[in-house]
Amino acid sequence: MELFFFQLLNGLGLGVIYFLLSVGLTITFGLLNFVNFAHGAFYMVGAYVTFVIVSLTGNFWLALLIAPLVIGTLAIALEQSVVKFSYVLEHKYQILVTLGVALMLQELVIMIWGPIGKNVSPPSSLAGIIEIGDFIYPKYRAFVIAFSALIAIVVWWGLEKTKFGALVRAGSENAQMVGLLGVNITRLFSITFGLGGLLAGLAGVLAAPLRGADPFMGVEALGIAFIVVVIGGMGSFLGALVGGLVVGVMQSVMSSVWPEGASLMVYAAMAAVILSRPRGLFGRA
Amino acid sequence: MSLELKHCPILIAIALAAFLVLPSISLATEVLIFAIIALGCSILLGYAGLLSFGQAIFFGLGAYVASLSQIHLGVNFLVGLLIATAAGATVAALVGALAIRRQGIYFVMLTLAFTQLAFFVSYTLDEWTGGDNGLLDVPRNSVDIFGFEIAIDSSEKFYAFVAISFVLIFLGMIRITHSQFGRTLLAIKQNEERATALGYSVKWYKVLAFIFSGSITAYAGGMYALFLNFAPLSNVELIMSEHILIMAIIGGTGNVYGAVLGSLFLVVVGDMLSAFWERWLFLLGGILILTVFYMRGGLISGLYGVFEFLSQKFGSASTQKES
Questions:
Q1: CA A130 to CA B168: how far, in whole Å?
Q2: Running along chain A, 285 residues long, what does each successive block of 10 average in pLDDT?
Q3: Backbone φ and ψ of A163, nearest 5°
Q4: CB pairs under 8 A between A and B
Q5: Is residue B285 situated within a structural domain?
Q6: What domain range is B40 assigned to?
Q7: Where, per UniProt, does this protein localize (chain B) (predicted)?
Q8: CATH number for B25
Q9: What residues in A contact B112, CB-CB < 8 Å?
Q10: Could you give the CA distance from residue A28 to residue A34 in angstroms, rounded to a whole number?
């Protein structure tokens, strides 16, 4: 029972990271109707920027502050230089363009830091464990859960309660109409794309002390993000949250029962959801 | 037969030229094998308009089945390849029939999920596939016909076998793409609703395209395992699907010779560049982006552009156009 609870908590920790990873993907899809195969690369570069900052300054908190901003800037730069020219193209060409971007980022990272992964240690203040009665849990993982929950609330607030969020939601309904109402829609697009990248980068920062940084984590993360977005429903904030938690808990609990089966199951779930209910749990039809 | 008469010499010339011009016989073998694989992708993308991340399933399956049937059933290499082809056709029918139930991005996602499933299944069944280490010591059991033994025990003999397969498969696919079937696929790609309204069973055409694509990819995957004497797990990775796609697109889809150019480009340029610059895939990503933006028809359309320019310039009526 205790082990199960431990795995459940681990799953929650994984799940909130998956949420941060996926929420940008799902919102850019909702708003721009755009499929970004380079999204996983933002997560990976986020982990590497964390590695650099931590190994230079030894300060994880600095990385937590700066790395997401770096990735957000990178995302906006890519949007301005490459991605925005593919909005007019068919989905399959958008996929190919962003696939090219992902490949370039991955190879660039290997050129700079080599193909072998790097370890990132958690901040010393979060190094130990928490004891609640008999139950012990790593401090850093508890921090990840709490911090991500906070970010999730901020993102929800931003989408639901601010003017920017209202524009994003309106744009998801009908981008052309929002443009006609005098909103600078191209700027809205690039800011949203940048924020999506920023959140994926943040997921990379939080994941770095847990799993290190390696060049191929982006591809893996992209697969996970697609599963989450598909299960939750494309374009849905709530879908990304619930989908992320479901996938995280499923993987974590399965990994203690049947490790190889964990990934098998989530991809089978993804295929089953697309076939039986393509709009996912919370997506619009 | 005129179609075959026209293309047969070109294909034989390509196979001979690859043998004579390329620096090593193993490079030439690889170019022809991947040309078949790129062709499999081109049939789906260029003719049926289906962007699939599922080609690695058929590639890996072909490699495993051709190897395992030789190891466990003791069949000769030719029968092994035929069993692999049949397995490829069967799985492609299944994957295709499921995937085409959704369109656009959902179709892409389904093929992606199926590839990941195939990967983790292969990884889990390590008693059969060797898991992470791959399937080692893949034999090339010789064919025995009435006491005549045909063995492909040298790299020259193996190249000859691959070249014959290459010519026959390309001729077959040229025949199919020029048939009513190929024309209908193009019609579906251009306007699916119109094709449906005209009474074509769009689903069957798409599944058939999957079957053709999957079977030749599995055959080529089997040959690749025989070539390496090894069937690595990386055959079924998503990255393999991506590479196959990139190969087909850079070469140019919708034209069978685009597949040859794509394979030639990736295998040969990759081989040359990786010798002194391991991270040449960086360049490949850039080329993919440029191809989508500026040369959607791929290298083959560029080549035709040059031909047309030359024929206009010199006013000769005998254009070299080969379509």
A1: 68
A2: 83 94 91 88 97 95 97 97 90 93 95 94 88 85 94 94 92 87 90 95 96 94 94 91 94 84 89 92 74
A3: -70, -40
A4: 106
A5: no
A6: 2-279
A7: Cell membrane
A8: 1.10.3470
A9: 223, 226
A10: 6
pLDDT in tens, B191-243: 999 999 999 999 999 999 999 999 999 999 999 999 999 999 999 999 999 99
Backbone angles phi, psi at B151, to 5 degrees: -120, 145
B/e letters for A157-170, b = 16+ CB within 10 Å, e = fewer, are eebeeeeebebbbb
In the DSSP assignment, the letter for residue B234 is: G
Examine residue B88 and state whether it is found in any structural domain, yes or no: yes
Encode pLDDT of B257-312 as tens digits.
Answer: 999 999 999 999 888 888 778 788 899 999 999 999 998 889 998 888 888 888 88
Partner residue opposite A260 with nearest CB, options B102, B123, B281: B123
Q: What is the pLDDT confidence band of residue B73, given thresholds at 50, 70 and 90?
A: very high
**Which residue type occupies B26?**
S
| Ordered DSSP codes for A146-213 | HHHHHHHHHHHHHHHHSHHHHHHHHHHHHHHHHHHTT--HHHHHHHHHHHHHHHHHHHHHHHHHHH-B
Q: Which residues of B touch A263 (CB under 8 A)?
A: 116, 120
CB atoms within 10 A of CB B8: 16
Answer whether A275 sits within 8 Å of B102, measured CB to CB: yes
Query: Which positions 72-101 of A are in contact with B (Cβ < 8 Å)?
Result: 82, 85-86, 89, 91-93, 95-97, 99-101
DSSP state of A280: T
Identity of the residue in A91, A101, A110 whose CB atom sits nearest the CB atom of B285:
A101
Nearest to B120 among A82, A107, A260 (CB): A260
Q: What percent of chain B has pLDDT over 90?
A: 78
**Number of domains chain B contains:** 1
Q: Give the gap in angstroms from C-alpha B290 to the nearest C-alpha of chain A.
A: 8
* Contact state of A270 with B102 under an 8 Å Cβ cutoff: no
Bridge partner list, A213 = A118
Beta bridge partners of B135: B231
Q: What is the mean pLDDT of residues B141-145?
A: 87
Task: Flag whether B21 is in a domain.
Answer: yes
- Rounded-to-integer distance, Cα A261 and Cα B60, Å: 20
Please write down the HEC assignment for all residues of A33-46.
CCCCCCHHHHHHHH
> What does the pLDDT read at residue B125?
93
What pLDDT does residue A175 have?
85
> Best of A99, A113, A234, A258 to disrupt the B interface by mutation (most B CBs within 10 Å)?
A99
How far apart CA B100 and CA B54 sit, in angstroms, is 12
Read off the pLDDT band of B319 (50, 70, 90).
very low
| ipTM score assigned to the predicted complex | 0.91
Tell me whether residue B17 is in a domain: yes
Residue of A nearest to B105 (CA): A91
Contact: A260, B282; criterion CB under 8 Å? no
Bridge partners of A138, per DSSP, are: A129
> What distance in Å separates the CA atoms of residue B196 and residue B209, rounded to the nearest whole number?
16
Q: Does A264 contact chain B (CB < 8 Å)? A: yes
